[in-house]
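#dry-run=false #mode=assembly
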Amino acid sequence: MNILVTGGAGYIGSHTCVSLLEAGHSVIVIDNLNNSNLETLEKVKQLTNKDLTFYQMDATNEAAIDQVFLNHKIDGVIHFAGYKAVGESVKKPLEYYQNNLVSTMVLTSACQRHGVNRIVFSSSATVYGDNQVPFIETMNLLPTTNPYGESKTISERILTDAAKANTNFSIALLRYFNPVGAHESGLIGEAPNGIPNNLMPYVTQVAKGKREKLNVFGNDYPTVDGTGVRDYIHVMDLAEGHVAALENLTEGVHIYNLGSGKGTSVFELIHAFEEANGVTIPYEIVDRRLGDIAASYADVSKAKLELGWEAKRDIKAMCRDAWNFEKNYVEMTIAK
Ligand code: NAD
Ligand code: UD1
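#status=ok
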């Protein structure tokens, strides 16, 4: 299939391009390089020994998107492009709604106009809010407390309504849990700008000596050891989940949790990282982070049953590959 990948130069997008190319699909990437670098796509080509088409453009630009649909016979779209920093979304709500919602609407209406029916959307476990674990696709969604999370809930609603009106649409709403790690080669991975918000990139920077110690946000949660529990998923498992969704999609809207199904606490992750990589991670317990929940992990039975997909790589592999990438990573200039 010819797959249009928005945000394909980013963290999850670039790994998914590798999986798509390896599965024999053709890839057309559009990315405005707001939070990524062209170099990453060169590495995708190097890793797969295959070519891809790249357009530097904004996914909210309707005329430009239309032109891409005219230039290529597109069979499906994976929509990764968007802003993703929770804290920043509280400070810049309008920018977040503009980018994340308008891009979803522009792409969906382009699909409608050009008769492209397969759409895979990057949603997030954040839409479950503070529900009871494990989170299952049939749960009622709860408020997410920030514009980033709300932009995912609203995008899911937009796509669901679009599919009610156009019954040819085959749409997958993929709710990612916590993507971590990097391609096994260490050539591509997660390279956040500035101080990392998320746990794994912070841990790798502490391991590298770039940061002095990890701040553990609270040890008084009702969890196994008092620290927050999350469902970490290797980014290559996640990438393969996209290929499975694309290849198995049927008409209508289908929601899938993409996670490992296992909860790991902050302390458990630190220990796994130390054991996998033979390094020490100094840490200090500090106050809880505003907006954090105690535990989040997935019920993953639906994706296994309907897509034949499940996560294969364990927490040690995630820690090893995250560190392998960080060790080799030479900071690239992020195009702004
Ligand atoms: P990322 O920032 O690495 O990748 C997003 C890419 O989209 C970047 O390359 C950026 O330059 C591009 N982009 C942003 N706005 C654009 C626009 N208007 N037009 C064209 N390109 C644009 O983020 P990621 O971690 O790869 O996340 C991909 C998607 O998955 C996002 O929608 C994110 O919200 C969602 N998601 C991510 C996580 C996570 O923990 N990383 C978890 C759940 C959901
Ligand atoms: C974050 C986002 C969430 C998003 C998810 C997946 C916030 C508030 N939430 O959540 O919307 O869907 O990523 O990308 O940013 N931790 C520390 N010290 C740190 C960093 C994190 O102790 O320096 C703890 C957190 O309290 C949490 C766990 O580690 O218990 C994981 O944190 P993080 O990687 O930020 O993921 P989420 O909290 O799931």
